[in-house]
Amino acid sequence: MGCDSWKAKLDTYLDGELPAEEMRPFAEHVRGCPTCAADALARVQMKRSVQAAGKRFTPSAEFRKRMQKSIEAKPRKRNFGFAWVLASAVVATLLVIGFAANNRNGARGRAEQSYSEVADLHVATLASSAPVDVISTDRHTVKPWFQGKIPFAFDLPELQNTEFSLLGARMTYLDQVPGAHLIYEVGKHRISVFIFQQGALRGDFDDNSGAKKKLSFNLETWEQGGLRYFVIGDASAGEITKLSNLFKSIAS
Questions:
Q1: Phi, psi torsion values for 243, nearest 5 degrees
Q2: Which fold does the domain 106-248 belong to in CATH?
Q3: What is the pLDDT, as a whole number, of residue 169?
Q4: Fewest beta carbons less than 10 Å away: which of 137, 157, 195, 249?
Q5: How far apart are CA 72 and CA 178, in angstroms?
Q6: pLDDT tens readout for residues 111-132
Q7: Are 9 and 18 in contact (CB under 8 A)?
Q8: pLDDT tens digit sequence for 18-34
Q9: Smallest Cα–Cα separation from 157: which of 181, 132, 140?
Q10: Rounded to whole angstroms, what are the CA distances from 14 to 20, 81, 128, 167, 175?
Q11: Is 104 in a helix, a strand, or coil?
Q12: Hey, where are the domains in the chain?
């Protein structure tokens, strides 16, 4: 299959809409083809730029407050009948429920966007000709490299007697929050482990999220010791769980 045939499906691959049986050979081709890798990286970066631009036009909390004050400032007819009082109470209750639902939906939406961005970061790494900033299989080399680069510390699991190997690491950002990106290998598959400060991320992360299940990659995420972990890759769900458990076993 020539590169033209691969590129015809590149956007479908980046959007995670390829059939499962095509994802792995496509990922292997992108890793081994400099032309397709560069094209994939450029498209991922453009996608993230579009997402960032969209956030700039999200109404701020201050704007909402001004709108609410403007509405409240409008003159109202005085009517102290029982029906009006009852209607007001019903409306107030609905507004409270609506605000609560909007807050939950907003948090859920931000989490779903984070899942998508994590997948984009993983794909960009697979497509990059220089996927890591520090190349090392030694966790005692990788961990100190992050000192002074991110506002938190973390531990890496011991990999002896496991099928996993550490390839290296790099700095990364999720929703403008700095974090660590570790790259592991199992068999012919690469797995990304992202670590961020839990309090710095926005979103209500749910292990049962439908958005997470729609990703073409297997993904596990959890909070531990004030840090949010994401483990993602095209390896099997069992291998993703094994690597996740190695991190969970570390004393926080």
A1: -65, -40
A2: Phosphorylase Kinase; domain 1 (3.30.200)
A3: 94
A4: 249
A5: 40
A6: 677 788 888 888 888 877 778 8
A7: yes
A8: 776 777 777 777 666 76
A9: 140
A10: 13, 60, 14, 23, 19
A11: helix
A12: 106-248
